C-alpha cells in the first residue's frame, strides 16, 4: 500500500483558513480516491501534526509522507516542521516520516495567482494598472526574494505599468510603500494579487491597507482550493514517497 499523505498547513485562529485547507484536501482526495489523505496543522488549528502522526502509528502505519502547505522555504518549513517531525519520530520510533519540499517555486503558483487576479477584475495588458503581489513576509530573505521574482516576471511580461512584491510583516516594502512605488512608475489604478493560500489575519491586513490607500483597488482572493494546487500537492507527495526494496510508492 502507498503510505498515507498528511497535508500539513500552518494553522490560523480564523476558521476560514482551516475551511480552505479542508476544501483543498477534498480536491486531493477526489483526484486520488485510493490514497489515505489526512489534514494536519502546525499550530492554532486542529488536528495538530503530532496527533495525526500518533493516530496513524496507532492504526499500524509505519511509513508516512508529509507535504507542507507552505509557499516558501521560510521559518515554518526550515525549523518548526522538522522539529515537530523529529519529536514525533523520537516518540514513535517505529514510524518513518518523509517530508516533501514546500509548494514553491512551481509555475502553477504564479499562474493560479494571476488567474485569481484576473477573476477579481484586473486586465492583463492594462498600461495604467500597477500590481502588488502581496505575501506574508519572512525574516528569511530567500523566501521574500521568491515572491519578488514572480512580481518581476509579471512586470516584464504582462503589459502593466509595473508589478512589485509587498509583505504583510517582517519584510519590506509594505503595501503603502509598494503602491507609492507603482504610482511613481505611472500607475493610475492599483490591483493586489495574493500570495496566500487561505484567508486570515494577514490577508485581511493586506486588503485593509490597499483599500485605505485606494478604495477602488482590485484585491484578488487567496490561492484557495483548486485542481492546480491539488496536483502540486500530489507531485510533492510523489517526490518524497517512501522507497522500500526498490519500490517507489507514488
Protein architecture, described:
With 250 residues, the protein is α/β, with parallel strands linked by helices. It has 2 domains: 5-103 and 226-248, Rossmann fold; 108-219, Rossmann fold, CATH 3.40.50. The chain is 44% helix and 18% strand. It is built from 8 helices and 10 strands. It has helices at 15-31, 49-58, 75-91, 108-120, 141-157, 175-184, 201-213, 227-239; strands at residues 5-9, 37-41, 63-68, 96-99, 129-135, 162-167, 189-194, 218-219, 243-244, 247-248. The strands form 3 sheets. A 4-stranded parallel β-sheet has the order 2-1-3-4, with helices on both faces. A 4-stranded parallel β-sheet has the order 6-5-7-8, sandwiched between helices. Strands 9-10 form a two-stranded antiparallel sheet. The longest helix has 17 residues, at 15-31.
